[in-house]
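Pipeline run #58 for the internal structure catalog. This entry was flagged by the ingest filter as a single-chain record with no existing model, so it goes straight to prediction. Upstream metadata was stripped on purpose; only the residue string is passed forward. Reviewer on rotation: M.T. Logging verbosity set to normal.
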Amino acid sequence: MSFAAFRKSEQHTDLGRLAEEHMKHDLTQEDRDVLVKASTRVTTPAIIGTIAGLGLGLYAAFRLRRVRAEMFNAFRAAEKPTHVVFSGGRKEAIPDITPLMQPSRYGDIATYFFFGLGGTVLGGELGFLLGTWSASRLIDKDAARRSRIEAAYRRFKADYLRQEAARLESDTSPSVLS
């Protein structure tokens, strides 16, 4: 997601003002309250999912780090060959790769970072999906309310497209979408 979506601009302010007007004139107070409640039903599970995903990601990273350390200790304690004898009688030394297999601090940092990031994204997306489903169930409870909200959205979209067409024809200011 681009951070440009959070940037303040005149076009975004106009779009917000137009949406507020349609919410005031096309919807009842009860419809507006349901939309506000539906928006909290989306954000709350997304926040909880993000936090839970971060915790599970860090826990998985901790477990992976411990398993890596145990595997290294088992590898270090195992008896390893030191020489190879060829059929001609020649002996070659095998280099010790134990220091190369040792877990490093940078590997641990990368493990915690990527597992934490992955858990955060996965948990946040699952929470957002659950919240969206819950919000749509809330709005769909009353068929009349749903039709009023859909009609208000269609009117808002038509007004926005009319304003955008007027802007493009007059060529006075840039588009909201650009």
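catalog note: DSSP finds five helices and two strands in the chain.
catalog note: Residues 29-77 form the longest helix (49 residues).
status: ready for reviewer M.T.
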